[in-house]
Design brief:
Elements lengths: L1 H17 L1 H13 L2 H7 L6 H7 L9 H13 L3 E4 L11 E4 L19 H7 L2 H4 L5 H7 L3 H6 L3 H7 L1 H25 L9 E5 L5 H9 L4 E6 L1 H4 L8 E5 L11 E5 L7 H14 L6 E6 L1 E2 L8 H14 L6 E2 H10 L4 E6 L5 E6 L2
Parallel strand pairs: 3-4, 3-6, 4-5, 6-7, 8-9
Antiparallel strand pairs: 1-2, 7-11, 10-11
Helix pairs in contact: 2-5, 6-11, 10-11, 11-12
Length: about 350
């Protein structure tokens, strides 16, 4: 009897994993329709009819039955709340509200101190970025890069040729930069105090660096990325945009800042980047500030499981990239010319790795 029950549970687990994508794509639907914003703009829980009538850009009457089924699943997943207050006559209508989870998916009705994961959620669930996951078995059998197998070119070439994808990618990176920067500026503020200049390598459109400079206006900031990336970057006070290639050279500064850059590359490429970082900073007082995941495969921390998933995101999207354990970080830092380092924990998915040449 016990083995029968265990087998049945095993079967149920496989059904669950088979359709895990349904959670992601049902939630993508809610984000695309801006349902969190619709609820938030009403100031409290609202009916399905109110949600449907507020969906933007509808050319006909929305299918409320379909919407109800999607919301039912998302309520079960605790993305939204649902309750049925009675009006005293026995009649009741379900009212849908936000949770701590869905508040992270607001896009248009954010408060000044709020941040959003909506852009990166739309990015990671877009068919362009989902399709490489279907190439994993080919990568194992044949080697090669999943994104290239799916799209015929690596992700950076794809972005340079496709302005729509470039915007999708940059918006996703910028929203995560703001979230992580909030944690960094809170927990690592002293780390920027004595810097006169800072170069953000792979800084995208400059959102992260602008927040650092805003909090530490004595810093002269250089946002450094590929020419097609900085071409779309807005102007920020105290920040200059420079196009180039980090594998060739990096602009000089007191310190180099890199958020979610090293995990895009294999060990050999990371060592090249680190050697160029060392050339760009002062020998005695310079440092590199790396914002990346430090894997703890056996850990039970809030983000340890997500770190392992991020490692597979690197298989899907990067050119040999990976997330690394502390020992793996130590190895490439040493080979790149950084003999000392320390890891600063922050309340975020990533950690700060502060490394010094001496």
């Amino acid at each position: 009897m016990e083995s029968d029950e265990a087998s049945l549970r095993g079967q149920a687990e496989i059904w669950k994993y088979m359709f895990n994508f349904a959670d992601s794509l049902a939630l993508r639907c809610a984000v695309e329709l801006k349902i969190p914003d619709i609820i938030n703009s009403h100031g409290g829980p609202i009916t399905l009819a109110q949600i449907a009538s507020s969906i933007p850009n509808t050319s006909s009457d929305p299918d409320i039955s379909c919407l109800a089924r999607i919301m039912r699943l998302l309520v079960r997943r605790k993305i939204f709340t649902a309750h049925q207050p009675s009006d005293g006559s026995g009649n009741s209508t379900i009212l849908y509200g936000l949770t701590h989870s869905s508040k992270w998916l607001l896009r248009d009705t954010l408060g000044d101190d709020q941040h959003t994961l909506a852009p990166i959620f739309l990015m990671e669930t877009h068919p362009w970025l989902v399709s490489p996951w279907h190439c994993f078995s080919r990568c194992i059998k044949e080697g090669g890069i999943a994104f290239e197998k799916s799209h015929g070119r690596e992700i950076w070439d794809f972005a340079s040729e496709n302005p729509e994808f470039n915007k999708l990618f940059n918006d996703g990176m910028e929203c995560t930069a703001k979230i992580i920067l909030k944690a960094i500026l809170s927990e690592y503020k002293d780390g920027f105090d004595y810097l006169g200049s800072l170069v953000d390598v792979g800084g995208g459109t400059g959102g992260a660096l602008s927040e650092i400079v805003k909090s530490h206006p004595h810093i002269k900031g250089t946002n450094f990325d590929l020419p097609h990336v900085v071409a779309t970057a807005p102007a920020y006070p105290g920040v200059s945009h420079v196009g180039g290639d980090m594998f060739e050279s990096i602009p000089n500064a007191d310190a180099v800042f890199m958020k979610w850059i090293m995990h895009d590359w294999g060990d050999e490429d990371c060592v090249k980047i680190l050697k160029n970082c060392r050339k760009a900073i002062p020998e005695k007082s310079g440092k590199v500030i790396i914002i990346d995941v430090v894997l703890n495969p056996e850990g039970n921390g809030l983000f340890d499981d997500t770190g392992l998933i991020f490692d597979l995101v690197m298989v899907a999207h990067a050119s040999g990239g990976k997330e690394r354990t502390e020992n793996e970080w130590k190895k490439i830092l040493k080979e790149g010319g950084f003999s000392r380092y320390k890891i600063v924990k922050i309340p975020a998915l990533t950690s700060i790795i502060e490394a010094y040449p001496q």
